[in-house]
Structures are given as structure tokens and as C-alpha cells.
């Protein structure tokens, strides 16, 4: 933040309107605010601080106490400050609460405090209004812009009178607030909170797991894990005994089943024998059809004996038909070949006539070859001339382009510089976007968590309502079950008395009281209650009691969850503040806006780097082009001379050629046509001769093929006559009357195979049936069919006994299995609990370390700030060593604080005279001022180096220089001058006369009875 102009009206000792134009002091000035005691030097700093935060530098007077007593009644007390921050100018105006004359009538009225904040244009005019009147809104906006609150601003940018030692002597917690804001280390604080939250969640999970273990035991109707072990150990022999009884019953059932199964097998053998006898009778009914099939197969076998003669006859006829077709094709081929031979003779005569023109064509070819050689030389010169002219043209064009490019580079450089200034201003405006986005995203996550908690709270309320209703219902059920069990037990006792009364006899003693007289024996009621009914009622009572206890535990658990939910919600409400009342969409919009700004900041940063690189590239390109232009101009002249020389040579050669032979391309095409004509006529003559020879050869071959086909036809006709005679002779000797009877007796292979398979299957099945019947007769012998109903009844009884023993064993084994599952579940639960406790040991330890609850009680954020403080102290000590003539250095105290006090950021001073470290509070007044000044300057350097979004461009120092000797004063002024050269505005408030001599630029404050005035000295006219 850099002040541009300060206007004070009726403020402090200034009765009228006083304006300080800091821009007149020069860029990054080092100036003195000088004046007598009480004139109002410190009031200038009060006005700056009041304009920004509504507080004075010492925070000892409120804004209402800052009105000038000499000011006119109609003049309002107000302060206006123009300042420059991250490329943007702002104006803030504040009016404190005060009494002013009424606009109408007599008397005064109270003027309410107000504040306005504007963005300014480049011309210094008010542009966008950020705050219209609200003091609180102005405070929040200014704090967000500067990144510091009023107290931090006073400690790092304004060292007010009597307050310069506060930063030096501040405690760890106060210094932590300042440094965390300056260096934006809130992320480490969030890590601390995250670790603390994680450890708390694991601790709650451990407690919930313990409750879960108790629920596991309750679900198994067990009081404790020892009861579980006792019942499980007792069940083991009971299960073994029940299993032995079941196995014995199972053995008896298996014996009964075996007897029944053996009888069933014997019964099935009798039934199978009868079925086979019936199958054999049905099978013999197919004997007639099988005999017919055997007769058909016999005739087919006889016909098969004549098959070779019949097949030979058919093959001979097929060969005869093929020979006839081959003879016909050979005659047609001979006729076609005779026509082809005649055409070949005619083509040979035509080719002979064209070959007679070849000598003339060859002579013309030789003449064109000579013209082409000369034409090639002309073309080469023409091409070289064209290349030279093209090179001349290109060199000239390149020279013009480079000259134009040089001018373009100059314009681009100017545009890039302008763009860089714009981007740097925009980057400064967006510098705080990432940290603001991080804060808003954390708020957004907390706001989402709050919404989730609200939904969970509604569900918890509904669950508690249902649990309360269920608890009431379980209480009613338990009361009714207890009452009913008591009534059943009383009725059972009454039934027992009536039963005893039935056994009483005259003069026989009563089994209860021993009396021989029985005047009023109990009578039997209408309803008799048994012991089983009493036990059932007591079991129902016990079940109702357990259900009631479960409902009570559920109610208590929900109450505990509700309490924890309320604590979490209150924590979030405190963290969110006013955002807790805002809808989530508002945070979404804020995050989206900041996310866009953060993204834009990255884009701007990347574009700045690109623009820097582009500007460097333009500078390199400018140098290279300028150097190239100096070399191009002689090259253009050389290319022009070469083009003119080649043009002269081309003209001389062109005059030596005839007009029709100057174009080598035309000559080359003509020569190519001649070569093609010569080659074509030579090939045509050779091809015609070869074609005639080939046709004569094919004609002879066609005549031979016709002769062979005729001979084969004659032989096939003789073979047909022979085969016909052999067939007739075989048919005459066969049992068939004629050829039709032969064809009727024939069977194809499929039908023959089918009949054969049918006969074989019949005979095979008949043999199988007879063999099986013989086997059954041998097996059964003299046995009789068994009594199946009696054996079935015996098996059913054994099976019922087995099922009873099985149910008994399953009940006991099921309980044992339930207990084993509970034991395994408990083992898993204990293992999970051990794992959670191990996690808690890890996360709890990390949380305690990060939050500074162990060791030196240094939190993670304070540790990081300690490292940053070390960097600050290195810079501060360099200056303090110079001002203290090598005696003092600032160091961070390593020993922890006593008690529960937070530590890690305490300061000591290392005294080289004594070789020991001692508290900074032991320094004298002048030494304290030097240490505080060195610390403020070191802090300014480190904050600027880390570029955390906070820019400490200004430093005001109020008094303290009077406590320095001349040497220390010179060293202090020298260091401030170095800081000024680094781009800072340094303002010193002092009445030390030596400073007036060393600092010509100053603001003189003059006091008078009418109020103080201000005059700027030592500024050169612009």
C-alpha cells in the first residue's frame, strides 16, 4: 500500500482543510515530517490509520475525540486518503460521529459515523463505489485489500510514538497472528484442525465400537463375555451327547432302510421277470415280416451277380456318346483354325509394306537429335537465367520483407510493453485471489457439512421420536407381561391346591398342614393352568424385559448421538459466522467467482512470462534482422549482375538455331514420336511372321485331333456291340425272366442295409430276451415276493426317531454355532477396536504434536512461522549489527515457555560483548528503537520476498531517533536510504535537528492559535 494523497478537515490540530500530496515527494521518497512538539506530526499518522481502519495509531483516542477545537462549527471532521495497491488506486473517506449544527433551526444534531470506498480512474477520478456508507463494510473491505487489521497495520507499517517496541516485545500468540496474516500460513492451521478432527473422530469410533461389543452380547442374550464362555463350554458335551444319540438312531434307520431297499430290489426282480416274458411274446409277433425281408434280400443278392455285365454295357454307351461329341468339337476347331491362318497371311503382307518406310524415318531421327542437343544448351541457359532472375527477385523481396519485419518488430515491442504493464496491474489486483479462494472453499466445505448435519439432525429427531414411542410401547408390554405371568403363577398355585384337595381322605393327615380335619378343601376352577403355561408366561415376561432394555439402550444411544450432533453444529456455526445464515448457493457463487479470479491469475502469470519471453525473442530477432539486412544489400546487387550476364549468353545461342528448332521440348516430342513409329513397325513385322508360323502349327494340330477323335468313335461303337452281347447271355442264364424282373429284384444300398439291420436287430433282441429270462429264473429260484407294507412301516418309525434326535442335536448345535459366531464376531470386534486404538495412537499423536500439546508446546503453524521468523531475524540482524556497531543480533529463543504458555516465537538479543543471549526487554530505549526498526525493516524485506499477497510498500516511523547517537543515527538513515532505493516510501516523524540536514524532502507542520498547517519542503518543481 502506497499513500497518494491525504486530506484532513477539522481533524486533530488542523482546524481547516489540509492536504498532503505524497506524489509530489517523488517516486519511493524518503522524507521527514518535522515540527515542534504538539504541532500535529503524529496526527498525520493518526489520520492515515483512521482513514483506513477508523482507529488512531495509538488506539488511545476514538474518532469522536479527534475533532479540532479551533475548527468552525459548520466544518465537519473528516479524513480522506487516496492510496495505490497492486496496480489499482482507491479512495477512502471517513466521518466520525460528532455534533454538528442543525440544517434548520438552532441547536445541534448528531452526525452518524460513515465511510465510503471508491476505486479511482487513472486520472484520479472516482469510478466504482465499493462501500456507500457502512463503517463495518468499509473496515472489512480495507482489511481484505491490505491483508492486515488495524493492530497489525500499526505494528508492521506504522511504528507510532511509544508503540515501536510492541512488535519487538509481543508475545508468541500476538506475533503468531501478525505473521500468519503476513505470510498466509493458514493452511498449516487447517492441517492442525484436520488432524484434531480426525483424532476426535477415531476416538468417537473407539467408543462406538465398545458400545457395539456390548450390543453383540445383548443380541445373544448374554450378560458378559465370561457368561458366553461358560455357556459355550457347557454346550460342548451336550452337543456331543446329542450327536451320539442321533448317530445311533441314524444307524437303526439305515438298517431298516436296507431291509426295505433289499425287499424292493427283490420285488423289482419279480416284476422285471414278468415284464420280460411279456416282451418276448410281443417280439415273436414280428416273425412274418422278418421272413419276407429275408426273401427280398436273397433275390437282391442274385441280382447283384449280374451287376458287372450291366455296368459294362452302360459304360460302353457313355464312352460312345463322349467320342461322338469329341469328333464334333474337333471338326469345328479345324474350321476355325483354317480361318485364322488365312487372316495371319494377310497381316504379314500388310506389315511387309509398312517396313519399307523405315530407312526414311531413321534419317529424320538423326537430324532431330542434332537440333535437340543445341536446344538443350539453350534450355539450360534459359533455366539458369530464370533461376538468376528469380534469385534476384527473391533477394529483393526478402530485403523488403525484412525491412518491413524490422518495423513490425518495433511496433510489436511497443505493444508487448504496453500489454505487460496491463497484465502486471491485473496480476497485482488478483494477487489475493488464491488465498481468498482457499478460505472460501474451506467455508464452503464447512457450509456443506452444516447442511449435512441439519439433515442428519432431522433424521435423528425423527429416530428419537420413534425410539420414544417404541420405549413407551415396550414399557406397556413389559408391564402387561409381568402382570400376566404373575396371574398365571397364582392360578397354577390354586390349581395345585385343588389337586391336593382331591387326594384328601377322612381322618387322613393333610400333606400341607397335617390336620385330620378338612373343613373347606380347595375346589377345582374352570380353567386349569399348567406348569408349561407358567413357564411360557415367564419366558414372555423375560422377552418383554429384554426388549424394554434394548429400547432403553437405543434411546440412550440416540440421545448421545444428538448431543454430539449439536456440538458439531455449534462448532460449525462458530467457524462459519455470518456465512452460516447464507444459502449454500451464495458460497457457490463466491467460490466460483474467486476460482475464476484464481484461474485468471494463473493465466495472467503465464501470459506475463510469455510476454517477457516474447519481448526477449523480439529483441533477439531485431538484432538478427538488422545484421542480416546489412549483408543482404550486396547480395541483391550480385544477383542482378548474374541475371544480366546469362541473358546475354541466351540471346547469342538462340540466334544460331532455326526458328522451328528452338524449342527443345517440341523437338523431343517429335523425336519420341519417330522412335515409337520405328519401334512399332519393326515389332509389327516380327509379330506378323511369328503369328503366321503359330497359326500353321495350330492348324496341323487341329487336323491330328480330328483324326484321333474319329478313331476313338469307331472303337467305342465296337465296345458297345460286345457289351450288349455279354449282357444278353448273362440275363438268359439268370433266374430272372427278363430285364424288368432283374430291375424289380435290385435293391439300393440303403434299403439293403435297412433290411439287414432289421433282421439282425430282431434276432439280437430275441436272444437278449431269452438270455435275460433264463438269468432271472436262475436268480429267483424258489423265492417268494416280500411283504413291503410291513417293511415300510418299520423304516418310517426308524426315520421318525432319527428326525427327533436330529432336531435335538441341531437345536443344541445351533446355539453352539451362535455362540461361536458371537465369539468370532467379538474377536473381530476386538481386533477392529485394537486397530482403531492403533490409529488413534498415530492420529492422536500427530494431532497433539501439530497442535502443540507435547514437548515444547509449539504448534505446526508456529513451527513454520518460526522458520519464517528466522529469515526475518537474519535480515533484521544485518541492520542491527550495523547500527549497534557489531554488538547486537536478534535471535529466536529456543527454550520453551514455562507452564502452559504457547512458545516458539519469543525473541532474544545476542550480546557479543558478553557472549550471552538475553531478553529484548533488557535493551535500553535507544537500543530498543534500533532493534524495533531493524525488525520492521527485516520483516518488510521477507514479506516482499515471499510475495504472499501483502505488499509492505510504505513505512512510517514516529520518534525514537532522538535516543540514537550520531553514529547510530547515520547508520539508521543509511539503511532507510537503501530501503528507499528498493522501491519503498519511508516517512520519519522527528524533531531531531540532524535529520533536517540529512533529509531535504520534508513535511513541515506549523502550530498557531488558529490551528496547525502543513507545508511541503524540498520538492523540485515538475
Give descriptors for this structure.
6-stranded mixed beta sheet, about 1000 residues, alpha+beta, single chain, flat, 6-stranded antiparallel beta sheet, about 70% helix
Structure at a glance:
It comes from Vreelandella aquamarina. With 1022 residues, the protein is an alpha+beta fold.
Whole-number mean pLDDT:
77
Strand order of the largest sheet: 2-1-4-5-8-9
Distance between the ends: 24 Å
Q: How large a portion of the residues is in β-strands, by DSSP E? A: 5-15%
- CA radius of gyration is 61 Å
Largest sheet: 6 strands, antiparallel
Overall helicity: 55-70%
Structural class: alpha+beta
Organism: Vreelandella aquamarina
Protein name: SMC family ATPase
Describe the protein in words.
The chain is α+β, with helices and mostly antiparallel strands. It is built from 21 helices and 17 strands. It has helices at residues 41-53, 135-146, 150-156, 166-169, 172-183, 186-219, 225-284, 287-305, 307-355, 358-429, 433-502, 531-576, 584-655, 664-733, 739-745, 749-780, 788-850, 860-883, 925-946, 966-981, 993-998; strands at residues 2-11, 14-21, 30-34, 78-85, 88-95, 98-101, 108-111, 114-120, 126-131, 158-159, 888-892, 907-911, 916-919, 954-958, 985-989, 1002-1006, 1013-1017. Strands 2-1-4-5-8-9 form a six-stranded antiparallel β-sheet. Strands 10-14-15-3-16-17 form a six-stranded mixed β-sheet. β12 (907-911) and β13 form a beta hairpin. α6 runs antiparallel to α17 (788-850). The longest helix is centred in the middle third of the chain and has 72 residues, at 358-429. The protein is flat. The mean pLDDT is 77.
Amino acid at each position: 500500500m502506497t499513500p497518494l494523497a491525504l486530506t484532513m478537515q477539522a481533524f486533530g490540530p488542523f482546524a481547516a482543510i489540509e492536504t498532503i500530496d505524497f506524489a509530489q515527494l517523488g517516486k519511493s521518497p524518503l522524507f521527514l515530517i518535522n515540527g515542534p512538539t504538539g504541532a500535529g506530526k503524529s496526527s498525520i499518522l493518526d489520520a492515515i490509520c483512521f482513514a483506513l481502519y477508523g482507529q488512531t495509531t495509538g488506539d488511545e483516542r476514538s474518532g469522536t475525540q479527534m475533532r479540532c477545537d479551533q475548527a468552525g462549527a459548520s466544518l465537519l471532521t473528516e479524513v480522506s486518503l487516496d492510496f495505490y495497491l497492486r496496480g489499482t488506486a482507491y479512495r477512502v473517506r471517513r466521518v466520525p460521529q460528532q455534533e454538528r449544527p442543525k440544517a434548520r433551526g438552532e441547536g445541534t444534531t448528531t452526525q452518524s459515523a460513515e465511510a465510503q470506498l471508491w476505486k479511482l480512474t487513472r486520472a484520479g477520478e472516482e469510478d466504482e463505489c465499493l462501500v456507500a456508507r457502512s463503517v463495518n463494510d468499509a473496515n472489512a473491505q480495507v482489511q481484505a485489500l491490505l491483508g492486515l487489521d488495524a493492530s497489525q497495520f500499526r505494528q508492521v507499517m506504522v511504528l507510532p510514538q511509544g508503540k515501536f517496541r510492541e512488535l519487538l516485545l509481543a508475545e508468541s500468540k500476538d506475533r503468531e497472528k501478525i505473521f500468519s496474516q503476513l505470510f498466509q500460513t493458514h493452511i498449516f492451521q487447517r492441517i492442525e484442525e484436520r488432524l484434531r478432527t480426525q483424532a476426535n473422530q477415531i476416538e468417537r469410533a473407539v467408543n462406538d465400537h465398545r458400545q457395539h461389543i456390548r450390543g453383540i452380547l445383548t443380541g445373544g442374550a448374554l450378560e458378559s463375555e465370561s457368561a458366553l464362555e461358560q455357556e459355550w463350554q457347557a454346550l460342548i458335551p451336550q452337543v456331543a451327547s446329542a450327536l451320539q444319540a442321533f448317530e445311533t438312531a441314524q444307524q437303526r434307520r439305515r438298517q431298516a432302510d436296507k431291509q426295505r431297499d433289499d425287499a424292493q430290489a427283490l420285488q423289482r426282480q419279480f416284476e422285471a421277470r414278468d415284464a420280460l416274458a411279456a416282451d418276448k411274446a410281443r417280439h415273436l409277433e414280428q416273425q412274418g415280416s422278418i421272413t419276407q425281408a429275408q426273401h427280398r434280400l436273397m433275390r437282391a443278392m442274385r441280382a447283384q451277380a449280374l451287376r458287372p455285365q450291366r455296368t459294362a454295357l452302360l459304360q460302353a454307351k457313355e464312352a460312345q456318346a463322349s467320342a461322338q461329341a469329341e469328333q464334333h468339337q474337333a471338326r469345328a476347331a479345324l474350321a476355325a483354325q483354317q480361318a485364322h491362318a488365312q487372316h495371319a497371311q494377310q497381316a504379314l503382307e500388310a506389315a511387309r509394306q509398312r517396313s519399307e518406310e523405315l530407312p526414311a524415318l531413321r534419317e529424320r531421327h538423326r537430324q532431330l537429335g542434332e537440333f535437340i542437343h543445341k536446344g538443350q544448351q539453350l534450355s539450360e541457359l534459359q533455366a539458369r537465367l530464370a533461376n538468376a532472375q528469380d534469385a534476384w527477385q527473391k533477394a529483393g523481396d526478402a530485403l523488403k520483407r525484412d525491412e518491413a519485419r524490422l518495423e513490425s518488430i518495433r511496433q510489436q515491442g511497443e505493444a508487448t510493453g504496453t500489454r505487460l504493464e496491463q497484465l502486471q496491474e491485473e496480476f497485482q489486483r488478483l494477487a489475493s485471489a488464491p488465498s481468498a479462494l482457499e478460505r472460501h472453499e474451506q467455508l464452503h466445505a464447512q457450509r456443506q457439512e452444516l447442511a449435512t448435519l441439519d439433515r442428519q439432525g432431522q433424521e435423528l429427531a425423527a429416530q428419537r421420536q420413534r425410539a420414544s414411542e417404541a420405549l413407551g410401547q415396550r414399557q406397556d408390554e413389559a408391564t402387561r407381561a409381568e402382570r400376566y405371568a404373575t396371574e398365571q403363577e397364582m392360578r397354577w398355585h390354586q390349581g395345585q391346591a385343588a389337586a391336593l384337595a382331591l387326594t384328601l381322605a377322612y381322618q387322613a393327615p393333610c400333606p400341607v398342614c397335617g390336620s385330620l380335619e378338612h373343613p373347606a378343601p380347595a375346589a377345582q376352577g374352570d380353567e386349569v393352568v399348567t406348569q408349561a403355561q407358567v413357564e411360557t408366561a415367564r419366558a414372555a415376561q423375560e422377552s418383554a424385559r429384554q426388549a424394554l432394555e434394548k429400547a432403553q439402550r437405543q434411546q440412550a444411544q440416540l440421545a448421545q448421538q444428538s448431543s454430539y450432533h449439536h456440538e458439531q453444529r455449534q462448532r460449525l456455526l462458530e467457524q462459519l459466522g455470518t456465512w452460516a445464515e447464507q444459502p449454500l448457493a451464495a458460497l457457490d457463487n463466491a467460490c466460483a467467482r474467486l476460482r475464476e479470479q484464481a484461474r485468471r491469475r494463473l493465466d495472467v502469470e503465464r501470459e506475463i512470462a510469455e510476454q517477457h519471453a516474447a519481448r526477449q525473442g523480439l529483441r533477439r530477432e531485431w538484432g538478427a534482422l538488422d545484421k542480416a539486412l546489412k549483408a543482404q544489400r550486396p547480395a541483391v546487387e550480385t544477383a542482378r549482375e548474374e541475371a544480366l550476364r546469362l541473358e546475354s549468353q541466351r540471346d547469342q545461342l538462340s540466334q544460331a538455331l532455326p526458328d522451328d528448332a528452338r524449342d527443345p521440348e517440341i523437338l523431343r516430342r517429335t523425336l519420341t514420336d519417330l522412335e515409337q513409329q520405328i519401334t512399332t513397325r519393326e515389332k509389327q513385322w516380327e509379330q506378323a511372321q511369328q503369328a503366321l508360323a503359330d497359326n500353321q502349327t495350330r492348324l496341323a494340330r487341329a487336323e491330328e485331333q480330328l483324326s484321333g477323335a474319329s478313331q476313338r468313335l469307331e472303337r467305342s461303337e465296337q465296345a458297345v456291340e460286345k457289351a450288349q452281347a455279354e449282357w444278353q447271355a448273362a440275363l438268359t442264364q439268370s433266374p430272372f425272366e427278363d430285364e424288368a424282373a432283374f430291375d424289380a429284384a435290385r435293391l439300393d444300398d440303403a434299403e439293403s442295409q435297412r433290411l439287414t439291420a432289421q433282421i439282425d436287430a430282431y434276432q439280437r433282441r430275441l436272444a437278449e430276451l431269452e438270455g435275460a429270462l433264463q438269468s432271472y429264473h436262475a436268480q429267483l429260484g424258489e423265492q417268494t415276493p416280500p411283504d413291503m407294507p410291513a417293511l415300510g412301516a418299520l423304516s418310517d418309525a426308524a426315520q421318525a426317531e432319527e428326525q427327533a434326535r436330529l432336531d435335538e442335536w441341531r437345536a443344541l448345535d445351533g446355539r453352539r454355532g451362535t455362540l461361536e459366531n458371537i465369539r468370532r464376531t467379538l474377536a473381530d470386534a476386538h481386533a477392529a477396536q485394537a486397530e482403531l486404538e492403533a490409529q488413534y495412537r498415530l492420529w492422536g499423536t500427530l494431532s497433539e504434536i501439530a497442535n502443540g500439546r507435547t514437548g515444547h508446546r509449539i504448534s505446526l503453524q508456529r513451527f513454520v512461522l518460526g522458520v519464517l521468523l528466522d529469515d526475518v531475524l537474519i535480515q533484521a540482524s544485518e541492520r542491527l549489527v550495523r547500527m549497534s556497531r557489531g554488538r547486537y543480533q536478534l535471535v529466536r529463543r529456543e527454550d520453551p515457555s514455562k507452564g502452559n504458555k504457547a512458545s516458539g516465537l519469543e525473541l532474544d538479543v545476542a550480546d557479543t560483548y558478553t557472549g550471552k543471549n538475553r531478553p529484548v526487554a533488557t535493551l535500553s530505549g535507544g537500543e530498543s528503537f534500533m532493534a524495533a526498526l531493524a525488525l520492521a525493516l527485516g520483516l518488510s524485506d521477507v514479506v516482499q520476498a515471499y510475495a504472499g499477497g501483502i505488499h509492505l510498500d510504505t513505512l512510517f516511523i514516529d520518534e525514537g531517533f532522538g535516543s540514537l547517537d550520531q553514529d547510530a543515527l547515520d547508520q539508521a538513515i543509511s539503511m532507510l536510504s537503501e530501503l528507499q532505493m528498493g522501491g519503498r516510501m519511508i516517512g520519519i516523524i522527528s524533531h531531531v535537528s540532524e535529520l533536517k540536514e540529512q533529509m531535504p524532502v520534508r513535511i513541515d507542520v506549523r502550530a498557531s492559535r488558529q490551528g496547525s498547517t502543513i507545508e511541503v519542503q524540498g520538492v523540485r518543481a515538475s
